[in-house]
């Protein structure tokens, strides 16, 4: 009685191995569009980002008035939340947009570092150039956010 059971079990095991080896694995598809839930989740980040974008305009007034200490303080203070907000949005984007968002975030922060250094050195042309690049990068980042 044990012999037929072991033969049956061996045959079932061979059948399972054969079936598994013949089956094709499923390949995860990369999503190409946002679901309504994803758009809704991403839209939660829009108000804080637009608030931070308006703070960039205030930074421009400091630059025009050549208030070097205020420029540096403003970059580290009110704009300090910018990196976290941008990372939260980047993590929610589709893979193609996520890569672009990461590059724009890196570029924006390089611009802000250059702006900080230029303000420390009291270099108005470099401050203005760095600010313009930062605004351009920020606006490009905002364009990656899907609209409702």
Structural write-up:
Helix 3 packs antiparallel against helix 7, helix 4 runs antiparallel to helix 6 (95-120) and helix 5 runs antiparallel to helix 6. The chain has a single domain (35-143), classed as Oxygen-evolving enhancer protein 3 (PsbQ), four-helix up-down bundle (Four Helix Bundle (Hemerythrin (Met), subunit A), Up-down Bundle). It has 148 residues and is mainly alpha-helical. The chain has helices spanning 2-22, 36-43, 46-64, 68-76, 82-92, 95-120, 124-143. 77% of the residues lie in helices and 0% in strands.
Short description:
This protein is mostly helical and 148 residues long.
Please tag this protein with its features.
148 residues; mainly alpha; Four Helix Bundle (Hemerythrin (Met), subunit A); 7 helices; elongated
How does the SSE layout of this entry go?
Blueprint: H1 2-22, H2 36-43, H3 46-64, H4 68-76, H5 82-92, H6 95-120, H7 124-143
Helix pairs in contact: 3-7, 4-6, 5-6, 6-7
Output the CATH topology. Answer: Four Helix Bundle (Hemerythrin (Met), subunit A)
Helix content: over 70%
Instruction: Please tell me what the overall shape is.
Output: elongated
Secondary structure tally: strands: 0
Q: What CATH architecture would you give?
A: Up-down Bundle
What is the element string, with H for helices and E for strands? Answer: HHHHHHH
- Which spans have pLDDT < 50 for at least 5 consecutive residues? none
Number of helical regions: 7
- The named CATH superfamily: Oxygen-evolving enhancer protein 3 (PsbQ), four-helix up-down bundle
Give the oligomeric state of the chains in this entry, treating copies of one chain as homo and distinct chains as hetero: single chain
Structural class by SSE content: mainly alpha
CATH C-level class: Mainly Alpha
- Please state roughly what percent of the residues sit in beta strands, choosing from under 5%, 5-15%, 15-25%, 25-35%, 35-45% or over 45%: under 5%
Main β-sheet: number of strands, strand sense, barrel status? none
The whole-angstrom Rg is: 27 Å
Mean pLDDT, to the nearest integer, reads: 87
